[in-house]
Amino acid sequence: MSTLEVRHLVKDFRVRDGLRRGTLRAVDDVSFTLAAGRTVAVVGESGSGKSTVARMIAQLETPTAGEILLDGEPIGRRGRALARYRNQVQMVFQDPFASLNPYHPVSYHLERPLRIHGVARGKEVTPAVHRLLRSVELDPPEVFAAKRPHEMSGGQRQRIAIARALAPGARFLVADEPVSMLDVSIRLGVLSLLARLQREENLGVLYITHDLATARHFSDEIVVMLRGDVVEQGPSDQVILDPQHDYTKTLLAAAPDPSRHGRLRDEVRAELAAQAS
Amino acid sequence: MSGTTTAPGPLSSAAHAAHVARLTPVLTARDVSIEYEVDPPVRAVRDVSLTLHRGEILGLAGESGCGKSTLAYGLDRLIRPPAVMTSGQVTFHDADGTETDVVALDGDALRAFRWDKVSMVFQGAMNSLNPVISVRAQLEDVLTTHRPHLTKQRRRERCAELLQLVGVDPGRLDAFAHELSGGMRQRVMIAMAMALDPQVMIMDEPTTALDVVVQREILRQIMRLRETFGFAVVFITHDLPLLLEIADRIAVMRAGEIVELDTAEQLYAEPQHEYTQQLLSSFPSLLGEFSYDEERR
User: A137 CA to chain B: closest CA distance, Å?
Assistant: First the structure.
């Protein structure tokens, strides 16, 4: 079975504060394994290093230390080896309003990866584009292929971004907050598309998010990060229903839950009443 | 989304009517329509009637483009061309018994009304604070404009007091916006909105850009201040679970109309409008079971 593994990943950034220079350890010793057909969620607040992990896996950043292994082999960092890696591991970015070129139609966004990665050529390209569009549930494909990004909703654009990531034949998707920019009523649609692709195409998905509820329901394993460290990791239900680390508990307590309506109001009233007496 | 033609008014329950009957109105909007005069014109708010009661937190929930911010800005006369209020009345019922026709206010009267009676916490604290003057200068600006009789000494005290109220060390008064964290900036914005003891505060996604833990602390602070000072809040957000935790009543907006208006308890327990149900089902419960039903899309 195909796996993507990170071992003891570390990332230092150089920072400058006035005349002082220093390093900031954004990611400190992160390890986990993503297997085909599985979803791993990395959760944490801003600055926790979760996006840096994603960017290192997508090779948009070079790790300071540690390794990334694809099917047990250390990955190539340049030339053909890098191209091979990129065939397998692709990224879906947070903002579908920024990640698609407004000048080009959808077909351009999907044809390019197909050609560059040698997946299709000549007459095969258009049917391949249509197949991709159907796989992300944009039907009829001829209509969507001709559209430009501004003619589509955020959810449709994010589906294009997913199709583009799949185009090279990727077996692993790194999705960095893929739904946080979308309207709430279409978020689950996009997430369930990822879940379906994961199931049907045996895709490995790394889901970077700050939303604990979708992390729990859409992934098999959760990695909780705090200031670059992994504070807890394990099967999703276990992490959410039986958290061990204080930080996980804090995060869970802070997450709004519709079934606990009026909670905050009642807590505050009780607090004030206690203070008054 | 299909075009809606007639507005039968929002769905509400009997429990809601009973709840509202016990309250006193502080701000009433009647048949408010706001249009963006672009080509073609966009009717962002369509004949909306809404009553905000003294001391309550009224949630305004909806997705981007539904008109929730436009409506809230309309209540405070903050809309600018190309947006125009084409019809409607907004009345402010002051605690001292005077009634103010907000739509008729102009010039000095409007300036005196805004912030003093109805203040606002804007969405991006990042962009709402002036980056080149200190927090103190911005807080004092509110006081010198609206309370010119205050002595310098008293003004300084009030600024320190305000920061304390929102949980920021008064030592930070001389800081600039970029020296503060996102959460602190938002707290400063709340302090500024509270400077004149307003009876109504309109909060437009005040915590959306913040991390959940910080978000929670700020919400807690807002709730505490509301209990202490008794101002009413219009809380605008797309985050329905959050609203369910803090709001007394919730109005659900879609395409410029309020489709459902009810107490938070009732809205959660028995949502009547299809769209409310859809919104509620967009947030899987953290601790409960969940399975996404593909047929429902």
Answer: 12
Convert the pLDDT of each residue in B21-30 to its tens digit.
Answer: 899 999 999 9
Which CATH number among 3.40.50.720, 3.40.50.300, 3.30.420.40, 2.160.20.10 corresponds to the domain A34-63+77-253?
A: 3.40.50.300
B81 part of contact set with chain A, CB < 8 Å: no
Please write the tens of the pLDDT for every residue from B66-106.
999 999 999 989 888 889 999 999 999 999 999 999 999 99
- How would you classify the pairing of strands B57-61 and B249-254? parallel
**Can you list the alpha helix ranges (DSSP code H) found in chain B?**
14-21, 68-75, 107-113, 125-128, 135-146, 152-165, 182-194, 212-229, 240-246, 264-269, 274-281
Ranges of residues in chain B whose predicted pLDDT is under 70: 1-8, 125-126, 291-297
**pTM score:** 0.86
Q: Are A175 and A206 in contact (CB under 8 A)?
A: yes
User: With pLDDT > 70 as the criterion, what percentage of chain B qualifies?
Assistant: 94
Q: Distances in Å between the alpha carbon of B91 and those of B72, B75, B113, B200, B230?
A: 14, 9, 12, 12, 19
Is omega for the bond preceding A74 within 30 degrees of 0, making it cis?
A: no
- Tell which B residues from 212 to 241 touch A, by Cβ distance under 8 Å: 212-213, 215-216, 219-220, 223-224, 227-228, 238-241
- ipTM of the complex as predicted: 0.78
- Contact (CB<8Å) A183/B238: yes
Q: What residues does each domain of chain A span?
A: 34-63+77-253
Q: Where are the alpha helices (DSSP H) in chain A?
A: 50-57, 79-88, 106-116, 125-135, 141-145, 154-166, 184-200, 212-218, 236-241, 246-254, 263-276
